Amino acid sequence: MKYDRVINxxxxxxxxxxxxxxxxxxxxxxxxxxxxxxxxxSHRSAVYQTIIDEAEADLRELMNIPDNxxxxxxxxxxxxxxxxxPMNLMKNGKAVYVETGAWSKKAIAExxxxxxxxxxxxxxxKNYSYVPDCSDLDIPEDADYVYICExxxxxxxxxxxxxxxxGHILVSDQSSMFLSRPCNVSDYGMIYxxxxxxxxxxxxxxxxxREDLIRDDLTDLPVYLQYKTHADNGSMYNTPNTxxxxxxxxxxxYLKSIGGLEAMNQKNIEKAKILYDFLxxxxxxxxxxxxxxxxxxxxxxxxESKELDAEVVAATKAAGMDNLKGHxxxxxxxxxxxxxxxxxxxxxxxxxxxxxEAEHK
Length: 361
Ligand SMILES: *Cc1c(COP(=O)(O)O)cnc(C)c1O
Hints:
binds pyridoxal-5'-phosphate; 9 helices; alpha/beta; three-stranded antiparallel β-sheet
């Protein structure tokens, strides 16, 4: 393989598209005649302003983001949003959460520090292996929002149908599925995504928020924690994560060049099918998630024992496939096959697992 790279199934930080890495390499020492690397550049310079403006414009085009939504680039990863969301969006001090795995659970724990949290549905009873029915949730009239994690990275499940919020605004953590498929932004009050899963380097979150949800009456809140601060200052109240914004901007352009989110979705469906078809036919490996809720991005699976799981992980690593060990809360293996994972990578994994199974019958 070119560059002697491994096939990297990391859940995050994760693979980047190779053409993007090559472009970044080519611009490393002298960005387009500026005489410096983007890392060395003032965020207040005209050349950097063009980088951030283009990143936002390309993202808006890719997702077809309506004009009444702000796009914000904020630091603190997705985790800081677990706190910023209730701090900014709880007007009545009450919100509804759906618990589908480790990441929604963390969001719930943080929101409880801010206000009343109603967990209206949960799949905890089956170790978060399915998305509960959310067509008729018990939502108090004065709840400020309904919160979901749209793709649970650790447990490997995804929402294929959004909950019925009964007129309340929907807030979604899309970290591990961001830009993997088309998304109708106006179905949501707010979407956010830590970018290191499916887009770029770690340390930044993209927030897409409807303008009327940005409040100016939160003057007691630390200034950095108010969405208004970031919205009023074009995501540059302080020094933003200039490097991450630059790299994400490149990925947005790359996605546009391959046909946008519809084309990306087709590739993702095709890729995931190769692995799921194998799991469904295998006698050694079993997927852990209900079929209709399976994630196209994170695919957890197990063998009959921890010992065999560990043996498979070691064997894949020796064969140049890295980061397949499952998260400790699910065990087994997990293949994260985000946008940047080529189909050939998934095919190589399946070939390997087939062979392993045949040899260990
Ligand atoms: C990784 C992840 C997070 C946390 O992201 P950080 O950038 O590490 O804070 C939150 N939600 C989901 C769904 C994730 O996959």
